[in-house]
Amino acid sequence: MTVRVRFAPSPTGMFHVGGARSALQNWIFAKQQGGVFVLRVEDTDAARNKPEWTEGILSALEWIGIARDTYEGPYFQSAYAGEHRAAAGRLYDAGRAYYCDCTREAVQARTGSQYQGYDGFCRDRGLPPGEGRALRFRTPDEGTTVVVDLIRGEPTFENKLIEDFVIARGDGSPVFLLANVVDDLTMGITHVIRAEEHLPNTPKQQLLWDALGVKPPVWAHVPVVVNEKRQKLSKRRDKVALEAYRDEGYLAAAMRNYLMLLGWAPSGDREIVPWSVIEEEFRLTEVNPSPAFFDEKKLRAFNGEYIRALPVDEFVAACRPWLTGTGTIAPPPWQPEEFDADAFAAVAPLAQTRIAVLSEIVPNVDFLFLADPLIDEAAWAKAMKEGAAELLDAAVAGYTALESWDAESLKSTLEAVGAERGLKLGKAQAPVRVAVTGRTVGLPLFESLEVLGRERTLARLRAARLRLV
Ligand code: GLU
Asked: Catalytic: 385?
């Protein structure tokens, strides 16, 4: 039997990193099993769905490495409304479901102050369908439902503790729980790999599979993703959107490597491994069921390593969207015509070792392209203390006299200027750096001055000097 898995996101917001993790696990599992990965967009919540979220999911999947020609679909849940209704009808006809007109208040009035679930009041009333009547599934009174889960063993649920749950609302529309099962069944899904949050739904869904007369799939509930406080990652509190990481300049390769480590690790003492190793070594059954900590700091460090491992020309190309501003990436502070590709190429190797995410390229190189540097006033106050004006005068004099405008000469000149004033190079550099780049930290100074050129360097040193009068 061909393995068929599916990834079934709801297009109700930005694409969650936890979702990306589940998608990758499904995709690798399918590949390993010679199976099929199906993409199904669960778009039945018309009030919350937006087409742009669907487009966002497709492009985010593509970015993370799940190309459109490697999966079946996308299918849209809304297109299967007829199948959902038909299944609800079959369950009713077979006596596996019944109509109910109880309000929540009525149930509560009968069962006491706290709502403990439905009390089965309409089970044997034989109500015919009617406006405002919900369809409830008649759960078995006895026995257990054993879920076969590749990650969690065999979680077992007492049937008598499962309430008669609603499968179609009062207006006749089937609920998510049923639609999700019917789609899996229609699409021949053999393995449902999804987030742990859905585990409480699983016994109910398995009962539906049984009642519809089809063998349930094998389940695998992958761990919930949590923040440093062990709280489930939430879009209100945490940075969860894959697109946000992409736009900040995380490399897809780093991101997918990191996501696969949520609850799993490759062999040996390694974490950063080529994707081919992950595809080969990943085992769904080895995924740790405990909550997985999404450690943004670690991801950043990972990304830095991936950036440093790029050949320089690839690094230059990877920086391009932040240097020009494309799509959802904000434009840089300079005008397009101010950008100088050669100057960038000259400093790129210096920047490559210093940044952890690609967007950080902008503040590192903006001094090269802006007519005037963006002066950080706090940096200015720190660097332009007693003696700065006089030091800048001496630097201007030394640099004006330089025959060869190269990093080595620029450095030895400033070293000499500093030494005459009893200053180490670091101290002598500070006012020069702030005058030229606007910041106290940045790329190696003398290489930067070399690329910036004599004229612009001197002009900036003079301008800073004038501000100190
Ligand atoms: N649409 C559901 C969600 O986004 C997925 C349910 C499932 O994978 O079974 O949470």
From this structure: no
